[in-house]
């Protein structure tokens, strides 16, 4: 059974009233209310896309009706299928910059993180690095600060950050994990759009770990890292598969029509939800909500 890599470009999505109203009806009421509380339209769109990506996955890959399951969150905020429970598929979503992305795998832990290369909100790049100094090892900082422009260094910084976050999200540890325990030896130094790279290695407490990291570029500014843990041999056998590694997957870019294809409304239309969204600020937040 193949894994899934989906991306939706939120940045260029300007929802019509009918689109936003339909989207809001097709997610669980508590998630609709949570999304309604965002200050910025950009964040609301990203969060909405993330929920629709998950529901589409459950329907298409787990074979459940759109209105036949319940999603919940762990204490650390990670979405999971709570009813009916399923241990076969692992999934994770992330959104930042102009995209929302989802990665899913049967029979193995998966985490995904998306980062957009951008200038620090205030101060210089080097001051930003000084503030973030404790998040990376000496070797990682040497790699980040290789010869090149400030933009090149920021690009490598966000690449390392996406790798670390993808691992943290895959294991579900959260903010209490010491990021210096994990060291990435990235390869190649330069990536190109349209390719998926698996050469990067991870060391945990100075020991190399048997994890796979898929790295790719959605465009020149958006890095995606997908962390893949060890396959569950028993799950693979039950599914009739093997433990051999499948080829890396490119991201499939979805339209809004793709997101809601096969969707079934879960609630009645709420015109007030559209009005709240329509009045949200357009200024983007610099924070991303990672799920």
What are the SSEs and their pairings?
Blueprint: E1 4-9, H1 17-25, H2 29-36, H3 41-62, E2 70-73, E3 79-83, E4 89-96, E5 99-106, E6 110-116, H4 125-131, H5 138-144, H6 150-171, E7 182-185, E8 201-204, E9 207-208, E10 212-219, E11 222-228, H7 233-238, E12 252-254, H8 256-260, H9 271-278
Parallel strand pairs: 1-12
Antiparallel strand pairs: 1-5, 2-3, 4-5, 6-11, 7-8, 8-9, 10-11
Helix pairs in contact: 1-9, 2-3, 5-6
Which regions have little confidence, pLDDT < 50, spanning 5+ residues? 285-290
Q: Radius of gyration over alpha carbons?
A: 19 Å
Give the CA-based shape: globular
Quote the distance from N terminus to C terminus.
24 Å
Share of residues in helices: 25-40%
Q: Helix-strand pattern, N to C?
A: EHHHEEEEEHHHEEEEEHEHH
Structural class: alpha+beta
Largest sheet: 4 strands, mixed
Q: If you average the pLDDT, what whole number results?
A: 91
> Reading side by side through the largest sheet, how are the strands ordered?
4-5-1-12
Report the total helices: 9
The portion of residues forming beta strands comes to: 15-25%
- How many β-strands, per DSSP? 12
Fold and architecture overview:
The protein has 291 residues and is an alpha+beta fold. Helices cover 32% and strands 23% of the residues. Strands 4-5-1-12 form a 4-stranded mixed sheet. The longest helix has 22 residues. The chain is globular and about 55 Å long. The chain starts with a strand and ends in a 13-residue tail after the last helix.
